[in-house]
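Memo to structure team: turn this sequence into structure tokens by end of day. - J.P.
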Amino acid sequence: MTEATLIVVLCETRSHAKTFAGFKRNLLDVFDADLALCVAENEREDKGNPFYKHARYVWTCSEHEDWGTGFEQLMPDLHPRWRECARIGTQWMGGIKSEPIQPGSGGIILFFRVFLSRMLQQYGLLDQYDRIIVTRSDFMFEVPHPPAELLDNRFIWIPDGEYYGGYTDRHISCPSCHILEVLSAADLFKEDPDDVARRMKIGQWNVEKLLKEHFERAGLSKWIRIMPYVMFAVREEGGHTSWSKGRYDAPMGVYVKYPEELRKSKLAATLLAAGGWNVAVFNDLLRREKLLRTIRRIVRSVRWIGQQLHKRLVPTK
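Reply from structure team:
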């Protein structure tokens, strides 16, 4: 039986002029999926762009100067001192006015996950779709996404890369039975911030680490599986970004936000050129990426040891 799939674009439809053709051909059509937009109302959103034209569902919320206001409207059961969680460094509450102010857009990402959860329930979609893929509009899909037959829908699939100590927040394929738990990382704002601080006292936190910690606490870790990373985020010249501006790629006419993503996409294109997706190609990509990560760790370790030896052996003037 064919699995019904809903693909959700989160936050905004940036870079659509460069990305939509590949998005449709190599993601939407691969799953024969419906499209939902879960985005903010702002002056950057062009509602005549092809994402809107192909969307079955469009869910919008207000753009907030302080996304903490959005949380307070959406989650009436927040702890009265929830903003104090910001004292837990370093960049997982960006976009929320707090003390201290954190950089980036981590708080905005958490808000839209809560907003998406509300929309899926309000429109009764959990019973209509077997698989829900949450992604972003600024991904270039120059090769096909791994198809449904390679992604056992009992499991939660996360791309192999951009971990930053946890799990990437940029793309996920999830069975509908787990999606509400997956999207509920912001539930920690309902807890006493002192208790949250004690639990998260070690290390510098980002959204990736927070998601991994949330999955572990929610009992989702046993359902996590890793798939090859085949897409890369871009920014058009003059395009909005709250984090990486990227490096300009003249042939493509875009800024590539994360060079490591582009490298992975090119590797996937090379292996898929012989005949497309199959189990062997899927596993080969994962093996190669694991080997490259190991090599990079060794190189970093050797470089660090060399620096320490240099400090010991070369006298400071």
